[in-house]
Amino acid sequence: MLNPEEKKTATELLGLGFSDAAISRQLDCDYQQINSFRKKLDISKEMVFENRHQHWVKLLKDGKTPKDIAQMYGMTERSVRVTLHHKLDNFSFVEIKHSKQKPKKPASKSNPARV
Q: Which of 22, 64, 67, 104 has its CA 20 to 30 A from that of 56?
């Protein structure tokens, strides 16, 4: 049986898209306890996967790399990349990278940019 603190942690991790197995490893408890708890909350595996993908995109926009995400979720970088490409239509790491960069400053009048 999960104690209140474990339930709170499990709920937060499910919201971030962590699998039942990953949560059970983190809380050092039986996988079935997490699985039963998730089902009791009426959270499907599909909902967990959707949360995971949304969180990954947010992390990428915040400057994390696929390698960083893979380490957080206990998987390979390749798995993160392949999952994002398969799950999200027209997904581009280049677009994510550019969306987080600040716009360039315009050229100053004393030193105009060459055209």
A: 104
